[in-house]
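Final report, results section. Input specification for complex C-07:
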Amino acid sequence: MIALEVSHLSAQIGEFLLKDISFKVLEGEIFVIVGENGAGKTKLLDSIAGFLSLKEGKVTIRGKNVTNAPPSARPIGYIFQNLALFPHLTVKENILYGTHFRHSGNLDDRFQTLIRFFKCENLLDKYPYMLSGGEKQKIALARALILDPQVILLDEPTSAFSPRERERVDLELKKTFKELKQTAVVVTHNVNEAYLLSDRIAVISKGQIIQIGEPEHIVYKPVSLEVADAFYEMNTYEGVITKASEGIVEAEVKGEKFYFLGDESVGSKVKLFVRPEDIILKKELSETSARNNFKGIVKSISLRSPILRIVVEGPVPFIVYITKQSLEELNVQEEDKVYLSFKISAVHGIKV
Amino acid sequence: MQYKKGSDVLTYTVFYLLGIFVILFIIFPILRLITLPSFNLILEALKDRSVIISIWNSISLSFITAMFSLLFGVPLAFLMAKKKFSRFESLVETIVDLPLAIPHTVVGIALLFVIGREGVIGSLFYREFGFKITGTSIAIITAMLFVSLPYLIDNAREGFKNIDPDLEKVSTVLGASLFSTFARVNLPLSKQSIASGFLLTWARAISEFGAVVILAYYPMTAPVKIYDAFTQYNLAVSTAIAAVLLVICLSIFLVLRVVIHKK
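Structure output:
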């Protein structure tokens, strides 16, 4: 069943434009919208919540058109970036705030279930300033969930946490939503967060959704350079198809041959993407099953915790990620000649 | 740039000296006034019933004024903080602060043309009900309200402005109407600013003389009584009344300030 459907949503906010955004979120799904700062993520959430009026398009929640409903009448929860707990109310008063205006089933049971679920029995009489970041987030979630929202929206849920805590918080959030079978739409600029939390990811850029898919699909099969750039560093090349047979395509980039899987026709231009961690680096030329083989000179080796980033120059340049242990085994230094290889499946090609 | 500790010390010294001058400039005349009249003279002044009435008039009418300023000022301050006047915003701000810039005797004369016997509203009241607004408590409250409203509005507006807009948004998403959000989020979170505004308004209203004396010499408020005593009797009597009014006002405001800041 579809929990949330956004179709052809367009909204003008000052100079900024959200353009023709469409997606469906299934019941119980965690749908993450990822994009750079200023891409329109929060504006999109505000449009779904009803804080921004639409120029065009429709928002449907469980089949009910809510496009013209005010925010207070939409069956949604919204967790703001700063969590927005009421500072003058206790934890208990915060959680129960919405129940003064909306009633859903047995309130007392739901309240007890939620405080047990979030283990916040001892926090009820405290004020928000007395809570840790994690506790605040639990209270904000409990406050939204007590109204049994059909969709919960989260704006950068871990931005207030230290980088070390983020992964734990994301996993906890995912566990919470899955256990409660809660549909969630999360926006973030953090691709790791998107990858950790999501069932599906949408990539937003300049007010437009440019790709929707499962995390693996987005990371390994980006539809454009923009999407590829959004998800980590990527080797990207432009070339022309020179051969194509039995699903294997040969493309030429600056006189070098790349091989990848596809059905593009000879003569067409392609963009090629190779992930730095998919490239194998060797000091000697040796037999390999990999179809793509290149050589070059190591220009720089730098630490990018927890891996090393190696820049190799040659007819085509490469960025390669390897572990410290691999580097020691290889015994490679700057200005050394190296051989690079990667599998046919490591190259992702898009016709341009 | 080199860090010059000596010049920093000099800057602080000059700033402290100027600051201390300001504090003394305010506190010295007040202390002098309180300590100047003899206890007997104060008792003598208080025996005069009209003195007590004038002090009561000042305190009670200014309190009513402050209550009216809450009623009319808070909604306007809220609209201003939420920028609901769009392109008229700075015009509205200027209008609200106008009373601060007009000499109070001018205010009195301007109001006379509205609520005076010949005034737009005053004449209507006189014709329809045979009731003259000038020379009544209503005239005093009108004058006090005119000159003191900006204090409440400006303070309340700042209070509303400082509230995180996400708190209002989350309240709305949780189902609250605009009024519920106002009552449960905006008001409690800006209560200190509103209370400060209320105190300043009350204080300003108590001290109002220029506009009040033009609209209502009677019933006498304390500032008018002090002026009256000063011109009719002598400096000693007016000093005694002034000292009593000062002590009462200071006590009220000190107590209220402590109460407000404790919350």
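The domain at 2-230 of chain A is CATH 3.40.50.300 (Rossmann fold). The radius of gyration of chain A is 25 Å. This concludes the modelling results for the funded period.
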